[in-house]
Amino acid sequence: MKLTTLFDKGAFVITGEVGPIKGAIHRDKSIEPGCAIEALSLQQHVHAVNVTDNQSAVMRLGSLAASVRLTAAGIEPVYQLTCRDRNRLALQSDLLTAYSLGIDNVLLLTGDHIHLGDHKEAKPVFDLDSVHLIKMAKGLSEGFDITGNSIENNIDMAFGAVVNPNFDPLDLQLMKMKKKIDAGADFFQTQAVYDLGCFDQFIEKTHSFNCPVQVGMVVLKSPEMGRFMNKNVSGIHVPEHWIKEIGSVDKKDRKKKAAEMAGRFLKQVKPMVQGVHIMPLGWTDIVPDILDYAGISR
Amino acid sequence: MHATIQKPIDEIIRHIQPNESVFVVGCNNCAWKCHSGGEEETKMMAKRLSDRGIDVVGYTVPGPQGMSLCKLSNTRKVLHEDYANEVERADSFLVLGCGQGVHTVIDATDDGMVHPGCDTIFGGETVSDTDIEEFCSLCGECIIEFTGGLCPMTLCAKQLLNGPCGGAENGHCEVDADRPCGWILIYERLKKLNRTSLLDPFQPPKNNAKWGRPRSLRVSPTEATFYANGTHITVSNQE
Question: CB under 8 Å to A72, separation ≥6 — which residues?
Fold first, then answer.
């Protein structure tokens, strides 16, 4: 089901996220890949699960194959598609293929740079940027490809996009967000946010855009992880008080604490947004607790 | 200018056959500025090769300072007339210049054997005697009217045309924390000029047909025709 259907109904849309395995899916169909097992554990608590596309520029199983596997297991995937590894022919062909294989939701992104990943000597493609990609996908849904040629059987998918509320200067990020909406973006998932004041400012400035926003949350598991992200993950800032709080309990109690902290934050931002995108990074078992703390149910 | 850096000497020597006589050619413009193939470096390369037992029959940097190796008429004249004897004895030419210069030597020596002594790394601005910076990617379709003269194809690691990705941190690029985000540079410049509205229009994807290699340009005083592989465009400078 397209996520736009849920947004239109006024549902608070909850998505999770899994990364495809570094390897192929077993031919023995009884053996699920790790990403599908993770997604299955999220299934009861979320509306859909994002499937990342060679995330952090690390080569993995294709996002589309993993998305199709999720569909087969009864899980709604959000197929992520980046501009990093494909030119406009491949991107369009993959969108047609995804729709043909039953995918209803696609998240259209630029993609992390190849330099950040495990194939640093590969040629970065970036034939299109994410605004072009969204506009091109919209074209496919209206019956023509990027060159204006007609296509048979239009695609009909919800087009997601991303935005980073932590970006400084924010106005520059919002300029691009507006372009994405004009190009055809149906909803947004944000970069992980920890700073309420910063997010509040973002929402105030984008309220008039009239496009659904899911707040992005990466579960903070430890103070080390917070410091690591601040140092190594671009576009994310974990404030010191988050790092202190997760470090204030013993390791054995961290899961409980992480759920409480994420849930508390989500409860505060919930009135500002139309959904949440939770990236549990393996701690899928605490997603129900996060939602409980925030007073949200599917 | 074309920025070049010398290849490691061991790599250069590896491709020279035993008993091969080599003539070394530098460039008195770009490679001179890069200290990769000016007069000093060319003379030094001849010595470095000789010291390693290679038969160097001569060396030159054709023309005065500021003269490019890639100006074929000059290079041909110098090699054919001023160094005719040495060139005659040479089995090959080691070129300390850019890839265009290497081909100029092929043309100037009527299909002589060449060895590239440099890697050609980018086209850049000579900001100072010690700094060469890249501001143009030679894409054939300039959009810097909309970006305050700063090229996102060059200054943005992802060559994004419609604004930044979300990866910049404290104004720096996600790829290299020592580099500023190209889009923040563009934005800050337009803000100073009070022209940030230039960023609002949608910028269409690049026409990559204009990168079709190889490319050539035929010029006259009144018009120019640009040929990319599979496409050509003629423009007048008179209208």
Answer: none
How do A105-109 and A158-163 pair as beta strands?
Answer: parallel
> How many CA atoms are closer than 13 Å to the CA of A196, on its beta-carbon side?
12
B2-123 has CATH 3.10.450 classification: no
Chain B contacts in chain A segment 239-268 (CB below 8 A): none
Q: Which of B158, B170, B196 sits opposite A124 (nearest CB)?
A: B158
Q: Is A191 an 8 Å CB contact of chain B? A: yes
Helix (H) or strand (E) holding A70: helix A63-72
Residues from chain A contacting residue B205 (CB–CB below 8 Å): 88, 127-129, 132, 146
Whole-structure pTM value: 0.95
Rounded CA-CA distance A126/A164 in Å is: 19
Task: Provide the phi-psi class of B110: left if phi over 0, else alpha when psi is between -120 and 50, else beta.
Answer: left
Among the listed residues B66, B172, B164, the one whose alpha carbon sits nearest the alpha carbon of residue A231 = B172
Residue type, A261: M
Residue-range domains of chain A with CATH: 3-294 (3.20.20.220)
Query: Do the Cβ atoms of A126 and B166 come within 8 Å?
Result: no
Rounded CA separation B146/B161 (Å): 10
Contact A115 B175 (CB under 8 A): yes
- Pairing outcome for strands B231-236 and B223-228: antiparallel
CB < 8 Å from A in window 209-228 of B: none
Please name every residue paired with A187 in a beta bridge, in sequence order, or none if there are none: A160
pLDDT in tens, chain A (298 residues): 999 999 999 999 999 999 999 999 999 999 999 999 999 999 999 999 999 999 999 999 999 999 999 999 999 999 999 999 999 999 999 999 999 999 999 999 999 999 999 999 999 999 999 999 999 999 999 999 999 999 999 999 999 999 999 999 999 999 999 999 999 999 999 999 999 999 999 999 999 999 999 999 999 999 999 999 998 888 899 999 999 999 999 999 999 999 999 999 999 999 999 999 999 998 999 999 999 999 998 7
Q: Which of A135, A164, A167 to mutate against chain B (most B CBs within 10 Å)?
A: A167
ipTM over 0.90: yes
Q: 141-160 in B: which are within 8 Å (CB) of A? A: 157-160
